[in-house]
Amino acid sequence: MRERLTSLQDEAAIAIANAESLDALRELKVKYLGKKGELTSVLRGMGSLPPEERPVIGGLANEIRAQLDLLIAEKESAFEEAALNEQLATETIDVTLPGTPVKLGSIHPLNLVIEQLEDVFIGMGFEIAEGPEVETDQYNFEALNLPKEHPARDMQDSFYITPETLLRTHTSSVQVRTLEKKEGHVPVRIICPGKVYRRDDDDATHSHQFTQVEGLVVDRGVSMSELNGVLLALIEKMFGEGTEMRLRPSYFPFTEPSVEVDIYHPEKGWVEILGAGMVHPRVLEKAGYNPERYSGFAFGIGVERIAMLKYDVDDIRHFYNNDLRFLRQFRSE
């Protein structure tokens, strides 16, 4: 049996060396080393050997199997390397060709304005506050001195979800929530950027969804002159030093006195950009602040209005149409 194993080893080695393809090599592996292969067939005759010879023949068979496995693996590796070299030779890559251009996005103009406003107010010591877009009637109206049936509610035609739940019509609701969290402590110095919703017909200057940045300051001794200084600093940062500003008397239920703020535009004349005023004593009282000890001011900025003036945009709908020709103009900002 020893001679038969040795002869089988030599025969298999020659066949493996002469194999001309990967498929032929795999057939040889099955022929000699498979479950029904020739090596297995020889080993089936070990039962006729004397007991003392069986371990010797078994060890020899294992050595032959290991050597043949090694020869097959080396030959298989040679075939694979040759196939790879042939593929590399036929599939050349021209590294001088230009790459596929990557289209870079840009920050949306409304986000640009919001980021600029945040930078201005953070520089003046304000913090950024956030709140839910789906709001309760209590926070959106009643806590802001707008009880049910108040005629001023008609100024903000609303999207109601239930009789007591609606899409917020302004971010002033965040101011109320912040005052409640402060539990009567001062100073309060925040801005509240976010989306708001009102039932309105969309046209060049109106949208049912738009963006506001509300501001609130509450402390001891806060005055109208401080509000004037904050607004003037804001306007000069956003539109350039020397921009003229004026305050006109107005009415808002949650501020008293209230003003409309205009800036002078070289081509459009005086243009309204925001509303502001001193926080109404009832709003302070409802939020847990003694209006005899504390005062404050608030303002609401329409981000779209600022962006339209700053970037000379003539139609508010451009901000929401996802027209790449429009948006690409802000790539360098």
UniProtKB/TrEMBL annotation:
Catalytic activity field: tRNA(Phe) + L-phenylalanine + ATP = L-phenylalanyl-tRNA(Phe) + AMP + diphosphate + H(+)
Domain Aminoacyl-transfer RNA synthetases class-II family profile: 113-329
Enzyme class: ligase
Binding-site residues, Mg(2+): 256
InterPro entries in the record: aa-tRNA-synth_II, aa-tRNA-synth_II/BPL/LPL, Phe-tRNA-synth_IIc_asu, Phe-tRNA_ligase_II_N, Phe_tRNA_ligase_alpha1_bac, Phenylalanyl-tRNA_Synthase, tRNA-bd_arm
Cofactor(s) the protein needs: Mg(2+)
Annotated compartments: Cytoplasm
UniProt protein name: Phenylalanine--tRNA ligase alpha subunit
Organism of origin: Laceyella tengchongensis
